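User: Batch of two.

Assistant: Item 1 of 2:
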Amino acid sequence: MLLLGVRRTYALERLIDADCPIGAFEENLTEKVLEKHIAPSGMYTYHLNKLAQKFAEIRRKDMINAQRKLAESRECNAYIENQKMILEQKSQEEVNELFAAAMGSTCAPKKTSIKPDYSKYRIVKRSKTSTSSTPTSSSPSSSSSPTSQ
C-alpha cells in the first residue's frame, strides 16, 4: 500500500501500531522503502518521525535484552567455574562423602524389620528315646441274643 500510494496514512499508522521485532522490519527493508518513497514528498513527516522513534525504541530494548542475557550467561559461567575450582580443591574423599550423603538423602528409606531376640529362650535338647504308652483296653464280650416280642 505504501508503494501504490493508496491510503498511505493508514499504512503508516498500521506500521506504527505493529508489535513485532526489529528483525521483521529489517527483513522487509521497511526503513529503506520509507526513505526512498515516502520521505521525499514531505507530507508524512509526523508518521515518519513516529516510526523512527519506534525503530529506535525496539533496537534499544533488543540491546538491553541482549546485554541482560550476556550478563546472565557470564554469571552462570562464573558460578560454574567457581564450583569447579572448589571441587578441585577438595580431596577425593570429601567428594565421595558428599556423593554418599547426596545419594542417601535422595533414596527412599529402607523398611527395617525387627528380628526377635532369642537370647531369652533356653535351649533344651530332646531325648532320643521316646516312651510310648499304648493303652490297653479290654472289651467285654457279651453276646446278645435277639429277643422277640
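Item 2 of 2:
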Amino acid sequence: MNTSLLMMKIIKLLTIIFVALIIKSCTPDDGTPRPTRGENSFSAKINGKQFRAEDVEKFANTTYGISAYENNKTYKLTFRNSSMQDIYFYLYEVDEKKDYLIGQSDGDLVYYQEGDDETSVSISDGTGYNTGVAFSSNSSELNEFITITEVLGDSIISGQFEKITLSDPNNPNNKAVLTDGHFNINRNTLNKRDSL
C-alpha cells in the first residue's frame, strides 16, 4: 500500500470522527431525562437545582411522586420529590396542543373551585401536606407559557415549559424560578404496580 493512499484513508477517518464530534457537541444533553409518551415522568429545575418526582414509601404506605386528576378538560398535576416538596400545575380547559398562558394562582392548593379560571403553578411549603403555598404564579403579564405537546381524551397529557416565575405570597420579592420542564402523563398507567 502506498503512502498517499494510506494518508487519504487516515484523513477520511479523521474527517468522519471530527464530523461525529461536532454533531455530538450540538446535541443538548444536560442529564435531564426526556419523557416519552405515557412514561409518567416529570423533570424540571427549581432555581437551577434538579427536581425529580419520586415515590416515597413509609410504613408500608406509598406516597406517589406523581398524581393527576382531570375534571371537564381541566387538569391538576402534582409532582412530589423525596423531600415531600410538591409542585402543582393547574391546567385550565386543556383541549388541544398549544401554548397556555400562566396566570395568577388563587393562593390555595384546593382546585376545581368556581373561581379557578386560569392556568397556574404553585409550590407547597414542603411539609408533605396540603397546608400552604410557598410560591405561586401571580401574573399573566410575565408572558410565560406551558406548551401542551399532546392531549388525548382525559388520560394522556404531555407538555413542557422553558421558564415559570413564582413569588412568595407573603414576600413578593422572594422568587422561585422553574426552568427546563417536561412532563408526560398517562392516567391509565399512572401509579399502577405489577402484582406479584
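Residues 26-37 have pLDDT under 50 and may be disordered.
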